[in-house]
Amino acid sequence: MTKKQFQRILxxxxxxxxITSLFFVPWIVLWAWIQPLPDTxxxxxxxxxxxxxxxxxxxxxxxxRPPSYSTAGWHDRKKEIPAKPDALFKIASxxxxxxxxxxTKLAHNKQLLLDNTLADFFPELVGRIENAEKITxxxxxxxxxxxxxxxxxxxxxxxPKESNEENLALVLDLPAKxxxxxxxxxxxxxxLLLSEIMDKVLGYxxxxxxxxxxxxxxxxxNTFSSVKKVDSNRVMSGYHVGYPLDLKTDNTGMVASAEDVxxxxxxxxxxxxxxxxxxxxYSSLYRYGHTGLVPGYQSIARYHRDxxxxxxQFTGPTNxxxxxxxxxEIMYNRIxxxxxxxx
Length: 343
Known about the structure:
The protein is of the alpha+beta class. It has helices at 3-22, 27-34, 41-50, 95-108, 118-121, 137-141, 164-169, 188-202, 206-215, 258-270, 278-283, 324-342, and strands spanning 55-62, 68-76, 81-82, 88-90, 223-224, 255-257, 290-294, 297-304, 309-316. The longest helix has 20 residues, at 3-22.
């Protein structure tokens, strides 16, 4: 084969590969990414609906400006109720920040030690959770325990459990993912166990402690332990692609307004949430922003130091097999760019 023939064949193969790859491009994600950037946050919120979201709620607290809210789409699409800035929303794993702060305060007050092991609190889990005698509170906070994630068990979201006992049972006697402290893998089981540890140390429900030490301190009146504690009409509807029913009454953790989450994120980052000595402990343990995802509900809450802004975004529906999460991240990042351009 001559050099010229080889080059011709190579060009043909590359052309076929390029054409084939076009069938697998997530065009909606690419389209959302390359669109011209709007001038305002509200325009971007409106665009979110054209990408398949039922509704979006945004809260922005930027230094030197009054807090602002943007919404688009529906609070309840079946009843045709427009999206509300004060809607309650399932914040999912954003709640880990509240739990990490609570652990920090308990550690600072010497009510527990960060190097206490899981076995110290629950000796009955030795032999049921591998390495229970080595796994520390610190490791569970930082997702370096190696404990399997109960939400990763087979078909979990088709039949989710409500109680900690039922969820923990899903991972008992499973092998560890890795030796404690030697790797990282996100696991909701870590925070399930941390909530049980706090309950044991306190002698009462740990959310009461969160209420007293965090929510009351910040005057947050729209943050609750579960949907069971609120009028469901206040909760934004949540749908999952391929499932016809509204998931808002499913009990999957904390609910809050975007404003309440934003005020919490601001206080977490500026240190006003902490007593003397507590922030140093927290900074050694966990992050200062988070995302959340449960069926029907996607959330992002972060502080952006370069523009001194807290931005909280709630969107739905969810689609674990599609690109809804990618689209929510694109929407969020474009909003940050808009705010940056306005500086």
